[in-house]
């Protein structure tokens, strides 16, 4: 087993050797420099924490696959966020002719309805849309499938839509 100094030295070499290349790979998927750097930094944090269990002869492959998978998850999350945004825009919550009091009442109604959602559904909605976690991340945390997460989101959005329409 490596001592802390050797681990740090090997990790530093690995980081210097791969950082730019991995940022470039992430950028090919995400088309965003800062987000690409964040992905690479996240993966290197994981590598640091798992360093003693990783095989050095396959580390390059591990890094590339990890970057690819993280980027694909982020792209999927972007799609979900866009769908979520579309769902809320379908509610016509903030039409131009709506005054601030109407907007405030609508937001209060949404908050009230969210509080009444089943605990698990409310938690999933919060994690996906306010904490920007992917369906897959929430599914792993709750030990359910990503499809189950999606069902909770669909359920929550349906309830919110109905509540807002009733209050109009």
Provide a short characterization of the protein structure:
It contains seven helices and no strands.
- What would you call the shape? elongated
Distance between the termini: 66 Å
Query: Would you tell me which CATH topology of the largest domain applies?
Result: Arc Repressor Mutant, subunit A
- The CATH architecture of the largest domain can be given as Orthogonal Bundle
Broad structural category? mainly alpha
User: Radius of gyration, rounded?
Assistant: 21 Å
CATH top level class name of the largest domain: Mainly Alpha
Query: Which whole number gives the mean pLDDT?
Result: 84
Number of strands: 0
SSE order in H/E notation?
Answer: HHHHHHH
In CATH terms, the superfamily of the largest domain is: Winged helix-like DNA-binding domain superfamily/Winged helix DNA-binding domain
With helices defined by DSSP (H or I, 4 residues minimum), what is the helix count? 7
Number of domains: 2
Task: Please indicate the percent range of residues in DSSP E strands (runs of 2 or more).
Answer: under 5%
Q: Can you summarize the main beta sheet? A: none
Pfam family, one: Sigma70_r2
InterPro entries: RNA_pol_sigma-70-like, RNA_pol_sigma-70_dom, RNA_pol_sigma70_bacteroid, RNA_pol_sigma70_r2, RNA_pol_sigma70_r4_t2, RNA_pol_sigma_r2, RNA_pol_sigma_r3/r4-like, WH-like_DNA-bd_sf
Keywords: Sigma factor, Transcription, Transcription regulation
Family: Belongs to the sigma-70 factor family. ECF subfamily.
Give the helix/strand layout.
Elements: H1 4-30, H2 33-50, H3 59-90, H4 100-116, H5 119-129, H6 135-142, H7 146-167
Helix pairs in contact: 1-2, 1-3, 2-3, 4-7, 5-7, 6-7
């Amino acid at each position: 087993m490596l001592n802390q100094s050797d681990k740090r030295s090997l990790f530093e070499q690995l980081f210097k050797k791969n950082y730019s290349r991995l940022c470039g790979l992430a950028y090919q998927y995400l088309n965003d420099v800062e987000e690409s750097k964040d992905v690479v930094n996240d993966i290197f944090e994981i590598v640091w924490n798992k360093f003693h269990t990783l095989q050095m002869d396959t580390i390059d492959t591990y890094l590339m696959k990890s970057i690819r998978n993280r980027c694909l998850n982020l792209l999927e999350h972007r799609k979900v966020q866009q769908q979520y945004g579309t769902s809320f825009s379908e509610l016509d919550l903030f039409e131009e002719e709506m005054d601030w009091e109407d907007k405030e009442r609508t937001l209060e109604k949404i908050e009230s309805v969210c509080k009444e959602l089943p605990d698990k559904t409310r938690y999933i909605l919060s994690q996906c849309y306010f904490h920007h976690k992917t369906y897959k991340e929430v599914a792993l945390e709750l030990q359910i499938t990503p499809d189950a997460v999606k069902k909770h989101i669909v359920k929550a959005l349906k309830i919110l839509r109905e509540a807002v329409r009733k209050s109009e």
